[in-house]
Known about the structure:
This protein is mainly α. The chain has helices at residues 2-5, 10-26, 31-44, 49-61, 65-79, 85-94, 98-104, 115-131, 135-142, 155-169, 173-185, 194-201, 212-258, 270-289.
Amino acid sequence: MKLELRSLPRTLADLVAQHLVASGRFIDDDPELAYQHARTARRLASRLGGVREAVAITAYLAEHYDEALTEFRAVRRMTGNHEVLAMMADCERALGRPDKALALTKDKHVHDLSEATQIELLIVAAGARRDLGQTRAAIQMLDVPELTKRTRAEWLPRLRYAYADALAEAGRTDDALVWFHRAAGVDGDGLTGAAERAAELEGLEFTDLDEDDTIVEEYFDDTDTTAETLAELTGDDADDAGTDDAGTDDVADDSTDDADDADDADDLDDTDADEDDSDVVAEAADEVSEGRPE
């Protein structure tokens, strides 16, 4: 791509590069925005194969399949890159043309493709067979040695998932369950959803973690109710505390009578006593609110 950009004036090359970088930055989180940046780059430099490929891929991810297919064809013509065949076939499927998708699997350049692209093309072809109602043929296509290959390649969980899905469609539930588990076993990021499909076949349900928000809200509602209940219960305690304070005042008065020369600082303050009791009640309320009642 850098070599292609050098064919442009410096200012224009910098502008095109900025849009391509922005497109790459948003491609995972916002394919539509990535596609718009790639289109702007194409408007500025439509003769660059790398730019056309960026438009093709982002259009594909943003589900603009017609335009993606056109751009992929341009990429093949301009750059001789045939690795886009699998995505082209998938575009044909998405546009409701499974026959054309299957035709691409017979392209003369298929045997020159990388292993990853050949596997992706196989998955798309099997999907096209299923679109045509040929599920048994799809299963036969996917029953390849690569299913049991020991590799960390990204295509392995997708291949196993496609095989399991075809088995499930054919009513071979037990076999499908085995392969969904095998797909999940190599799908560390959970991109295929194989674990969920296996659980579904086993009659299990996954709990939505978003429900935690509701649980938290219910917890705080209960805490507020507990605090109100404590306030009601401590009303009588406060009165009793006041009575106890009165008794304390009597003792203080007796002490004052027995010591005529006592200093004014020795007199007991009713207000301080009330504040002490209030502090105790407040601390108890805080502990209940924190879920740690004594």
